[in-house]
Design brief:
Layout: E1 5-6, H1 8-15, H2 19-27, E2 34-36, E3 39-43, H3 44-54, E4 58-60, E5 67-69
Antiparallel strand pairs: 1-3, 2-3, 4-5
Length: 85
């Protein structure tokens, strides 16, 4: 039976992102979600629809029934490395 609701750990796993990044996307309302108290719940159909529309690269599994994307989400500035003389 297919799950109807995902939690933050599922999103982290599917997108291969950190917990901080997943929560950041939720706070920015980038990923469709429902907030119940202090928990985020993500409707599976809404998440897959959102993911499909946002994919940079689309990869289909051999059976052609599962989609996954490779993308990175980061608003962090790139730090310059300093050399020690």
């Amino acid at each position: 039976m297919e799950r109807l609701i995902y939690d933050i750990k599922d999103i982290m796993s599917v997108m291969n992102i950190s917990r901080n990044t997943a929560y950041k996307l939720m706070r920015q309302e980038a990923i469709p979600h429902i907030r119940i108290g202090n928990r985020y719940k993500i409707p599976a159909h809404a998440f897959h629809s959102w993911l499909k529309n946002r994919q940079v690269g689309l990869i289909s599994d051999p059976d052609g029934d599962m989609l996954s994307a490779v993308s990175s989400v980061s608003d962090r500035p790139v730090k310059e490395e300093r050399s020690v003389l």
